[in-house]
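Fold it.
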Amino acid sequence: LFEVKKCAPRAFLAEKAVVITDEKKILDKLKEGDFKPRQEVILEEYLQLPAESADAKASAIHADTRKTAETVQILAYTPNKVVIKATVSKKPKFLVLTDTYYPGWKALVDGKVKKILKADYIFRAVYLEPGTHVVQFVYDPSSFKIGIFVTLATIAIIVLLTFIL
């Protein structure tokens, strides 16, 4: 039994994002000695960032004067849902969840659907503006819904054919 003392937390905030679209180059970057996993995140696609509004600038200035500490707290963790409370101060960050990226997961930030980004080759990330947010990762694959529909339709056809014949 070994204790790993320098492991990454399950969820953390990364300030810097680097976009690399080639998977081999991502793996090469991860192996480099200058990659700082707790400070930067490697994304596989470019993200359209919202234009900074006057309200956002004012709230960032207000947050800066309060010296809000940045925190990430996992409130609930189940196989199909992860709920995280994150406080971001000063400037936007990426919330990285070190669970495997897989199609079918959806992200809700303060109740609004947000895009999940593939981060560091295998993890999930969402973009967060300054402030306190509740982020929910929910597993809700469309393939499951299609499977239920096909199964129910098949049962209905079998029952219908049984009564007709």
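The longest helix spans residues 142-164.
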